[in-house]
Design brief:
Blueprint: H1 14-29, E1 57-65, H2 69-76, H3 80-95, E2 100-110, H4 115-131, E3 135-143, E4 153-164, E5 179-184, H5 193-203, H6 219-223, H7 231-234, E6 245-248, H8 253-258, E7 266-271, H9 279-288, H10 292-298, E8 303-309, H11 311-320, E9 324-331, E10 338-341
Parallel strand pairs: 2-3, 7-10
Antiparallel strand pairs: 1-4, 2-4, 5-8, 5-9, 6-8, 7-9
Helix pairs in contact: 1-4, 3-4
Length: 342
């Protein structure tokens, strides 16, 4: 007898997709505000711009993913935190230019659609959206057997924010005599996981349930620590009159990201003794046999966000936050824009 083909026996379960949408609708709706004009399930999300609040608004947008941190989430069986990671990462990326987040769209690609896992992922998105004062107005779930294996999944997100034209922060206001303030990370955030997994799981043969030596926290918990958003702590100062430049410390570390906002003929000298390197990074450097400079290129090393400002503003911000004075801006005739002092 000839097999009757269907989408389901080809690997795509429409019913599971509809069940997932039903589960996530009330979760997503909690992120809505008065500017959202559509419900989940529309072909496009409508968002009304408040022209009484914004006089000369500039749209700032970004798209990103979570990288191979997703593999660790699968190993642990915990899926809500990676949704938070993605939102917070995107928020930090646009906040560098002074933008206030407005709305977020997500993409979830899977090998086999599991409504419970989708619900967990979306719960993470929604939690972080609420914490960052923005709406989750739409997204896409794609079940793609043949692209992903049954247990695989991928996440991507797009964020849109607004900043007044006069308040855009570009780094061009950075000047000689400014200082560098760093803000602690909550772990690896969402970068360096290919190297971290190679150290922990391939070279050292550790399990996600093993504790980091000298502590009472598992490797899985450490690696799934939620990427911190710096928006709420710093948004009140997000104007060029207070902050001259900002950098989100992601792939490339401090040297690779701070240089992106440094003007010509200025160098940021970073004193890496000003903060304590978190144990997870110390362990990976020693037990993984990784060169210190390579560590600072692959990981944030405990500093997840940086601002450059004058000393007066720096002191005010440090007193109100957990910021640490970690460097200074000097004139240079060299092409180098960031110098690490150990």
């Amino acid at each position: 007898m000839t097999e009757i083909l269907s989408y389901k026996n080809s690997g795509v379960n429409i019913d599971a997709g509809e069940k997932a949408v039903t589960k996530i609708k009330p979760i997503v709706r909690k992120t809505f505000n008065k500017n959202v004009l559509t419900e989940i399930g529309s072909f496009g999300g409508l968002y009304e711009l408040d022209l009484e609040k914004w006089k000369k608004p500039i749209l700032v947008s970004s798209a990103d993913g979570v990288g191979t941190k997703l593999i660790v989430a699968n190993m642990v069986g915990r899926f809500n935190t990676v949704g938070q990671d993605l939102v917070n990462h995107c928020v930090n990326d646009i906040f560098v230019q002074g933008a206030h987040p407005q709305y977020f769209l997500d993409y979830i690609g899977v090998g086999k659609l599991n409504p419970e896992i989708i619900e967990s992922l979306i719960s993470g998105f929604a939690k972080a959206c609420i914490e960052n004062e923005m709406a989750l107005i739409g997204g896409e779930m794609a079940e793609m057997p043949g692209i992903y294996s049954e247990d695989d999944f991928d996440l991507a997100g797009t964020i849109v924010g607004l900043v007044e034209k006069d308040n855009v922060i570009t780094g061009q206001d950075i000047r000689e005599g400014d200082v560098v303030v760093g803000f602690p990370s909550t772990g690896l955030h969402t970068n360096g996981y290919s190297l971290a997994r190679k150290i922990f799981f391939e070279k050292l043969k550790m399990k996600v349930s093993d504790n980091l030596p000298g502590g009472n926290i598992t490797i899985g918990d450490i690696l799934l620590s939620v990427h911190r958003s710096y928006y709420q702590e710093l948004k009140k100062w997000a104007k060029p009159e207070f902050i001259h430049g900002m950098a989100h410390i992601t792939g490339g570390g401090i040297p690779g990201n701070l240089k992106r906002v440094m003007p010509e003929n200025l160098i940021a000298k970073i004193d890496c003794t000003k903060w304590e390197i978190p144990p997870v990074f110390q362990f990976m450097e020693k037990e993984g046999g990784v060169n210190k400079y390579e560590m600072f290129r692959a990981f944030n090393m405990g500093i997840g966000f940086i601002i450059v400002t004058d000393l007066h503003s720096a002191n005010e911000i440090i007193q109100a936050t957990d910021g640490i004075l970690i460097g200074k801006i000097e004139f240079t005739e060299k092409r180098e824009k960031v110098f690490l002092e150990f």
